[in-house]
Amino acid sequence: MKILVAIKRVVDHNVRIRVRPDGSGVETTGVRMSMNPFCKHAVEAAVQLSEAGHGDEIVIVSIGPKTANDVILTALAMGAHRGILVETDADLETLAIAKLLAKVVEEENPDIVLLGKQAVDDDSNHTGQMLAALTNRPQATFASEIKVIGAELEVTREIDSGRETIAIPLPAVVTADLRLNTPRNAALPMVMKARSKPLAVRPAAEFGVDLTPRLIIDKVSPPAERAAGKTLGSTTELAAYIAAEVSQMEAL
Amino acid sequence: MSVLVIADHDLGQLSPATARVVHAVSTLGPIDLLVVAENPAPIAAAAAQLAGVSRVLTASGSPVADSLETLLSTLAVRYHYVVASAGSGGKDVMPRLAAKLDIMPVTDVVEVLGPNRFTRPIYAGNALQTVTDNQAKHVLTIRASAFRAAATGNAAPIETIDTSVVSVARLIAAHRTQSDTPDLATAQIVVGGGVALGSAENFQLIEQLAKKLGAAIGATRAAVDAGYAPNDWQVGQTGKIIAPDLYIAIGISGALQHLAGIQGAKKIVAINTDPEAPLVKLADVALIGDLFEIIPQLLSELDKTGVKR
Ligand SMILES: Cc1cc2nc3c(=O)[nH]c(=O)nc-3n(C[C@H](O)[C@H](O)[C@H](O)COP(=O)(O)OP(=O)(O)OC[C@H]3O[C@@H](n4cnc5c(N)ncnc54)[C@H](O)[C@@H]3O)c2cc1C
C-alpha cells in the first residue's frame, strides 16, 4: 500500500504571533517555523500504518517556498521514504493547494492520503475535504483512530456530539486530529539518514493549475483587548460575583 | 440573493446553532433551510419556526459528507449562498462542496459585514482576517457562537425534495456523551476544568458546579487527553468555540490554544493556584487558591446566595 502525506510549514504553534501594524498580515519574518502539529500526527499515522505492514511506501508532499524542505526532512526522519516539494513563494488559498495536491495524487495514485485536519495559521480545515472532492474519494475527517481492514478503512472521528466510527472504501482521504497518536521525535541517525532520501523539487507552475486567489484579503487586525480584571480575596466574594452575574443574565 | 442554509441536528433535534446561523445570514436574502436526516419531519417542524426562513426543504438520508456534497452541488445552482454552521458537520462537507463548485469557501465567519465581506479568525483567533469574496457563489460556514439566535414563531412551508442521499461511508458505531447539561457551543454559562482536577472522579466537582449554575461543562485538551472528560467537552482551537456570558475556568493555565476557544466569553472567572497563569491575568475576576478547597466552599456559598437556574 502507498500512503501520501501532505504537510505544511507554519509559524510554530508556541509562538505568540504579532499582527503587522499596517494590517497587511501576520509577521512571519524572523519567526520560528515548524511542521503544522496536525500534519505531524498525519505523518506519524502513516509511519505506524507502515510499521504494521500496511504501507510499502510513504511519500511526503509539501507546497511552499524552498524553506519548506526542512519540514519534509523532519517527516523523512520520522520514517517516510521520499519527499516532493511543490515549490512556490506565493501564499496559496486552500482551493489552489487542493488542486495541486490532486495533481500529485493523480501522478502517485496512493491508496491513502493523510493530512492534518487544519493548519494552525489560517485555521481553515479545508484541504483534505477539498482534495477528497477533487479526486472523488471518500473522506474521514478529524480522525482519532485508523484501522485498515481489507480494502476498507475503519476510522474513529471526533465530532461535536462525541465520537463515531465509520468504514470507508479505499482509496480514501483521512485528516488527522491530535488524539490520533503521539508523534515521535526522530533520533539523530534518522535525521542524518533523511538527508540521503529522495526529495524532488517541482515548481508549482509545472502542474498547470490556476493558482490565482479568489478572495481579497482587505485587512488583518488584532482581536479586541480585554480590560484588566481584579483578584478577589475570598470564596464568599466570588459567590457574590457569580450570583450577581447570573441574576443579570436572567434579567435579559 | 437567495440563501440555502443546511440545518444542524443531532438525535432528531434541531441544534441550537441553526437558529444562530439563520440570524447571521438573514440580511443576505431569503433563506431556504435544508434538513437532511433519516427522519427529517420533526427537525423540519422546529426549523420552520425560525424567523427569516422562507421555506424548509427536507430530504431523507444520512447527512454524510460525500452524499451531502452530491445533493448540495445539485441544489447550489439555485442559490447565491450555501451556508452551514462551522461545527463538525459543516466543516466536513462545506469545503468538499466548495471544491466541487470550484469556489473558495469563507469559513468560520464571525462577522457578516455586507453581501460579500466577511471576517474570520486566523492563528487561533489571535488575528482577524477581513475578506471580500467576489465569486459568483458564496460557500460559507458560520461560527454560531458569534451570533445571536433568530427568533421563533414563524411557520415556513415545508417541502420534501425527492432525492437519494447515499454515502459510501458506513456508520459502525457512535459514542455520544450522556449529559443533561446545556449545549456547550451555545450555553450562557460554562464551567471548565483543566488537568489540575487530577482524575475523572475529581472532575465531577466541575460537573457539580455546572449543575448548580445550569451551565455547560468544558474541559481543556490536556484534561480530555488525561481521560477526565470526553472529547466533545474540549474547548479551544481544536475543540469547541464558546461565547457564554460567563466562563468559569478552574485549574486551567490558559494556553493560547485554549484561549482561542473562549475569546467570545463576556465575563471570565479564573480559579487557580498560580497568580501568573495567563488565564488569571486575562480573567475579569480571579481567585487564587486550591480548587479542591475553593469549589466545595463555593458550592455552599452559592447556596447561601440563593442562586438558582
Ligand atoms: C495544535 C494544538 C492544539 C491544541 N488545542 C487545544 C484546545 O483546543 N483546547 C485546549 O484546552 N488545549 C489545546 N491544546 C493544548 C494546550 O496547549 C494546553 O496544553 C492545554 O490547554 C493545557 O491544559 P490545562 O490548562 O488543563 O493544563 P496546564 O497547562 O497543565 O494547567 C493546569 C493549571 O492548573 C493550575 N492548578 C494546578 N493545581 C491546581 C489546584 N489544586 N487548584 C487550582 N489550580 C491548580 C496550574 O497552576 C495551571 O495553571 C492544543 C495544543 C496544540 C499543540
Automatic annotation (TrEMBL), chain A:
Gene Ontology terms for molecular function: electron transfer activity
One annotated GO biological process: carboxylic acid catabolic process
Entry keyword set: Electron transport, Transport
Necessary cofactors: AMP
SUPFAM superfamilies named in the record: Adenine nucleotide alpha hydrolases-like
Pfam families in UniProt: ETF
Domain (Electron transfer flavoprotein alpha/beta-subunit N-terminal): residue spans on this chain: 23-211
Subunit architecture: Heterodimer of an alpha and a beta subunit.
Main function: The electron transfer flavoprotein serves as a specific electron acceptor for other dehydrogenases. It transfers the electrons to the main respiratory chain via ETF-ubiquinone oxidoreductase (ETF dehydrogenase).
Family named by the database record: Belongs to the ETF beta-subunit/FixA family.
Name of the molecule in the record: Electron transfer flavoprotein subunit beta
TrEMBL record, chain B:
Cross-referenced CDD domains: ETF_alpha
One of the GO biological process terms: fatty acid beta-oxidation using acyl-CoA dehydrogenase
Cofactor(s) recorded in Swiss-Prot or TrEMBL: FAD
InterPro entries in UniProt: DHS-like_NAD/FAD-binding_dom (IPR029035), ETF_a/b_N (IPR014730), ETF_a/FixB (IPR001308), ETF_alpha_N (IPR033947), ETF_asu_C (IPR014731), Rossmann-like_a/b/a_fold (IPR014729)
Keyword annotations: Electron transport, FAD, Flavoprotein, Transport
Molecular function GO labels: electron transfer activity; flavin adenine dinucleotide binding
Domain Electron transfer flavoprotein alpha/beta-subunit N-terminal per the UniProt entry, residue ranges: 3-173
Cofactor remark: Binds 1 FAD per dimer.
Residues engaged in binding FAD: 220-221, 234-238, 251-258, 272
Family: Belongs to the ETF alpha-subunit/FixB family.
Reported function: The electron transfer flavoprotein serves as a specific electron acceptor for other dehydrogenases. It transfers the electrons to the main respiratory chain via ETF-ubiquinone oxidoreductase (ETF dehydrogenase).
PANTHER family xref list: ELECTRON TRANSFER FLAVOPROTEIN ALPHA, ELECTRON TRANSFER FLAVOPROTEIN SUBUNIT ALPHA, MITOCHONDRIAL
Protein's UniProt name: Electron transfer flavoprotein subunit alpha
Organism: Candidatus Devosia phytovorans
